[in-house]
Every structure is written in structure tokens, then in C-alpha cells.
Amino acid sequence: MGSRPRNQKQVDWESGKGYTLKKMQRARITFSSLETNAGKLLRLVGLHRAYAQYVQECLDQMIAACKTNLYPSERRLFFTPPPTLSSQIAKNAQAHAVSLMQIWAKGLYGRTLSKRISRDTALSDQQKLELRCCGKYGIRKAGPFGKGTISQDSIDLYLSWIWDPEVVGQPPQVKPDHPMQMTEMTCTFEQAAGGHFGWWIKCSSLESRKLIQIPLASTPYLKRGLAKSVQVQPTLDGRWRFQFSEELPNQEHDGSAGKVGLDVGLNCLAATSDGRIYGRNFKPLFDKSYHRVRDLRANRQRQGFREDSTRLTRLERKLSGQIKSEAGRITNRLVEAYPKHTFVCEDLDLRGCRGQKRFAYRALQKTLATKAVCKVVNPAYTSQECPSCGHVSRNNRKGIKFACKGCGRSGHADVVGGQNLLRRSEDKQIRAGDHPSAVKRLLGMRYLRKRGSSALTDGSTLRGPSEPEPSGRGLTVGVPKGIRTASKSIPGFT
Fold first, then answer.
1. C-beta of residue 342 within 8 angstroms of C-beta of residue 373
2. Beta bridge partners of 203
3. Domain definitions of the chain by residue range
4. Are 245 and 229 a contacting pair, CB within 8 Å?
5. pLDDT tens for residues 206-232?
6. Kind and range of the H or E element at 274?
7. pTM of the entire structure?
8. DSSP for residue 186
9. Using one digit for the tens of pLDDT, what is the confidence trace for 95-130?
10. Of 61, 143, 188, 276, which sits 20 to 30 A from 405 (CA to CA)?
């Protein structure tokens, strides 16, 4: 849409880091009525042509000046004012041109420049790292970044590639059917008091103080209180498409209602600590698309082709779209089912992880972090630890089935993982950056304490009274439906 959704700033008081929650929006689309006067449509066509032409002129000016972004205070003095458009429509067109340039410059890294950086043998590892930061994060100012520093030479080299037609190709161009971005200053939407048409949209025209009034086709989704911006775009059948963005009621996702563990599984996209499972049927669809992409890429590598083909690019975009759509749908269901909750996720290292787990984890966690409060914990052995007795073993889990070898507890493996993540969020002894070997040793010591044994895994002995731990016997009471425990007591070794 023409304007960005307003964001709600939140702060994680435990880590001290801030994060932003975006307001959720829903698109409302309608079309011009078939009985619209032809003269009104011709006036709207003239406005659209003048708007698209001015957007292209603004893009040309930014390209000539090697600018990828302009602040709102700079646009009025930088761009040449149009002779026919009003000041408000010209302001919308300028903002539209800046947005297109930002999207184009950001997409260059993924399409072209990332491959150039990887294949350039003249660059050192440090230079490649700085260039990747410039492209991925849009850095245009030298200075400290993360744990390192971005030099001005790397920034100048990256910018020289952006404005080299032989490297990146053609700059962005405005298509004939490109939508117009209208705001409340140039477009109004209201319901008629009477007459043949129920809803009308009024927008500015090329003539001074004369509006273009377009009747809209009947649809049950139109209502008052829509967003203050609208996209106007012509269609192939001669009609006009109007897209509103409805802002949904803002929910205060402050995490005050409690915590819920969320595990990204191998056979389902998400499983919560209270037994809810989401995305059961997505794995077959994902595997089909993923195997096609994998086999096609492997075939091209065997033949010695280095560049991607049109078919491979199309399949990869289809796979990425499937993941984003399903992750967004599940995220909306989670936010609706757990309002004002904190979602406890695993801080997973994706090196060596393939398939659905790798792609779904990134998409789901990134989308969920923009809509709710999230907290990441150490994921070491959360899929192998028993929530009842604390026994850790690789044999406890086989696929989606969890059966503890120590106490006999059984259930869905992903749900058990979500419960362990929830318990891990209250564990003060296991931090997010601890090594898995240290976590395993600590879990083994806790298990032996519960059994009343003084012998540890390394031959040492325990001294002092045992400390209460989050994985106590009380957690075996009130388990979710579908999870069984053999006994509340903890048996000895067999």
C-alpha cells in the first residue's frame, strides 16, 4: 500500500533488546462498476498516464544522481515538479518512485551481486564479508557494524556495481498497468445516501478543483474505517481495480498472559506445549516442490551449468511462496489462539539442517516475531529429554513418536519438544549460548539427583542437598491429551 503500517515498539526486559510488532492488515479489493460513464473512465486514464510518466521521470532523476533513497524532507527540492499533476498527487508519485528504487536496489543483492561477490577471487574474505553486509542490510555509511567494521572502500565498491549496467542490467521501469498510490488527500471513499450505486470513490483529476467520481461494484466487504490509502490500477478488461488495506484491531501483545512453547517439527510446521499441532498436511506438498528444485539443480551442476535457468528460478520462487504463505497462515492462527502470550522458540543452528525444518523455521520465526512477543532458548536435547523424569537419550524419540526409556512416558515428539522449550525458558542454569556438551552434562546430573544416586557420569560425587529443578515430578500431573505416563515415580536403571 501507499503508506507503511504503523509499528508498535516493545522491549524485552530480560535481554534489553527492542523489537517491533507490526499492525496486521487485510486487503479489500473491489472494481469499478460496469455501468460507469465512459467520460469518467477517460479522465481516470489520463490521470493514470500522467502519474506513471512522472514516476518514471523521478526514477530517471534518482538514477542520474546515483540515489537509492531520499528522505521526505529532501524529495521536494530534489525532484522537478510536474506541470499537470497537483501537489498532493506529485507527492504520492515521488514517494512511489523512492519506494520502487529501494525495492530494486535491495533485490539486486539476491539476484546478481551475491553471486558476483562469491565468485570474485580478487576479494579477500574480509572484503566479501563487508560487501555481503552492504547488500543484505543496505549499509551506506562506514563504521562499526555487529562485531566488525564496514570500510568506506567496500561501500564505494558495492555502490559502483549498483550503477554499472553491465553488472546489474537495466534500472527499474514503470509498466503501463502500474498502480497509482492515492492517499486521503487525493482520494475519498464514501457510501451514497441514495441512488443506484451504494459506494463511490472520488479522486483528484488533471483539472483544477474537479473530482473524478467512480461508482464501485457491489461487494459485501466494503465498509467504513478502511485505511487512508488505496491502490488504483487498470485491468485488461477495461475496468479499474481499487485495493484498500483494512487495519485490524491492534492487540496488545505484551506477553502478560503467559508463555507457550513452540517447536518447529519435521512432520508438522509447529507444535505447541499444550498439544496443538499446525501444518500436518504441508510436508507432502513441500517435499514435492523441494525435490523438484533439488534434482534440477543437481542435474545442472552435473552438466557444468553455473547460472540458474528460468525454470529453476520459477520453481524456487514457487517453493518460497508456499513456505511464506503457510508460515503466515499458521502465525495468524497462533496469534489468534494465544493472545498476549510469549512464544518460546528454539535458538536453532541451521548448519547441516535440510528440508522443511530449515526453511520453515526461518519463515515461521521471522513472521511470528513481527506479530507477537518471542523468546529464544537453548534447544540442546529438547527433542530427546523426557519432561517427566528428565532422562536424555537418542532412543527416546523415533520419528514423531516419543517413548521415554526411563519412565515410559509417550506422546507426540514435537509436542514434547514444545514442553521442553517451555520449561527451558524458566531454567536459570541453561543459557542460550551454552555448548550442547555442557547442557548434556547438567541434564545428566539432574537426572541422577532425582534417582537419589551419588555417582555422576564422570565418576565424581554430589555434595550438599539436591536443588529443586524445573523438571520436577509435579510436571507429570495434568499432561495434554494424547500423552501418557507410565508412573509418577522414577524407576532405577534397568
1. yes
2. 187, 212
3. 39-168, 259-373, 394-476
4. yes
5. 988 888 988 888 777 777 656 567 899
6. none
7. 0.57
8. T
9. 999 999 998 988 888 888 888 888 888 999 899 999
10. 276
Closest Cα partner for 420 from 294, 269, 307, 260? 260
Whether 340 and 257 have beta carbons less than 8 Å apart is answered as: yes
For 139-258, where are the E strands, in sequence order? 143-145, 148-150, 180-183, 187-191, 199-204, 211-215, 229-234, 240-247
CA dist 252 → 26, 27, 246, 338 (Å): 18, 22, 18, 12
Mean pLDDT, the chain cut into blocks of 10 residues (494 residues total):
38 39 68 88 93 95 90 91 92 94 87 86 90 86 84 90 85 88 85 71 87 84 69 87 73 70 81 87 84 88 80 84 85 88 81 63 81 86 87 87 86 88 87 85 88 53 39 40 44 32
Q: Which three cell numbers stand for residue 47?
A: 490521470
Coil, strand or helix at 405: coil
How many of the other CB atoms lie within 10 Å of CB of 269?
27
Please compute Rg for the chain using Cα positions: 29
Scanning the structure block, which residue is given the C-alpha cell 554499472? Answer: 164
**Integer Cα distance of 290 and 62 in angstroms:** 39
**Hunting for cell 566479501 — which residue is that?**
128
CA 483 – CA 153 distance, rounded (Å): 59
Contact of 62 with 101, CB cutoff 8 Å? yes
Show the DSSP H helices in 197-302 as ranges. 282-302
- What is the rounded distance in angstroms from the CA atom of residue 80 to the CA atom of residue 75? 9
pLDDT (0 to 100) of residue 22: 53
In sequence order, what E strands does 103-228 have? 143-145, 148-150, 180-183, 187-191, 199-204, 211-215
CB 463, CB 375: distance < 8 Å: no
